[in-house]
Amino acid sequence: MCAYVLRRSIRDISLYGNITSHHFPLLINVKVCYSVYKICLRHDTFLFFTLGLSITCPEGFENHNSRCYKVLDVPSSWAEAKVYCSVIGGDLAIIDDANEHGIITGIIQRLHGSNDVHHWLDGSDVLAENEWRWMGHHGGSKPITYTKWNPGQPDNTDSAEHFLELSNFWHGAFNDMRGDVRRGFVCEAR
Ligand SMILES: [Ca+2]
Ligand SMILES: [Ca+2]
Fold first, then answer.
1. Lowest mean pLDDT among 46-50, 100-104, 110-114
2. Which residues hold their Cβ within 5 A of ligand 2, which is an ion?
3. Rounded to the nearest whole angstrom, what is the distance from the C-alpha of residue 65 to the centroid of ligand 2?
4. Rounded to the nearest whole angstrom, what is the distance from the C-alpha of residue 178 to the centroid of ligand 1?
5. CATH dotted code for 62-189
6. Are 135 and 123 in contact (CB under 8 A)?
7. Which residue ranges does the record assign to the C-type lectin domain (predicted)?
8. Which ligand is nearest to the CA of 167?
9. CA of 129 to the centre of ligand 1 (A)
10. Nearest ligand by distance to the CA of 152
11. pLDDT-derived band of residue 6, with 50, 70 and 90 as boundaries?
12. pTM, rounded to two decimals
């Protein structure tokens, strides 16, 4: 509406040719309208940035770079953790790059300092030994491209370690572990 009035006012001014003092009310109208228009523009920009650069996380998740994370210290098998994350609106976390690795290890360090704790991530080689994938849902698994294995890992101890955990004691390095061991876990919503 305001934009329409502004366009209309500018057109009307141009019809007058040389503007004289008796056109002041019109000019004032344009000035006021233009001010409102700028406010409208700012408002739209604000909405754009609010909606475009940040997303609303499920309750209890924290937002980092438009992704949402929640660390839960509920001792769970890998499969239980997977279900838990799904129920609260996410999935077990995947790590795409060093930046995301830093974000997740940072959250865990904030919660646990340097304590010897481990948290499940979404990785597994349960489909084929030593072919590590982020498991996802509904056939959406994908190969793990970024890795931060602790030296000597994955070692597939007793031919039974098929699930990926993040070791806070090893400064966030990856380890393969049996899936029935009870760990905390990291959920992520995208
Ligand atoms: Ca394995
Ligand atoms: Ca291992």
1. 46-50
2. 153, 155, 161, 175-176
3. 30
4. 8
5. 3.10.100.10
6. yes
7. 64-188
8. 2
9. 5
10. 2
11. very low
12. 0.72
Q: What percent of the chain has pLDDT over 70?
A: 71
* C-alpha to C-alpha distance for 108 and 81, rounded to whole angstroms: 16
CA of 186 to the centre of ligand 2 (A): 19
pLDDT digits (tens, 9 = 90+) for 85-105: 999 999 999 999 999 999 999
Ligand in nearest proximity to the CA of 174:
2
Q: Which of these, 105, 110, 95, 124, lies nearest to 168 by C-alpha position?
A: 105
Which ligand does the CA of 124 lie closest to?
Answer: 1
Query: For 119-134, what is each residue's pLDDT tens digit?
Result: 999 999 999 999 999 9
At 13, list the tokens: 């001014």
42 CA to centre of ligand 1 in angstroms:
54
Give the integer Cα–Cα distance in Å for 52 and 93: 22
Distance 172 CA to ligand 2 centre (A): 14
Provide mean pLDDT across the span 161-187.
Answer: 97
Instruction: Please check the confidence at residue 66 and state whether its pLDDT lies above 80.
Output: yes
Helices (H), the chain: 2-16, 24-53, 78-87, 98-112
Domain spans of the chain?
A: 2-53, 62-189
pLDDT of 54: 56
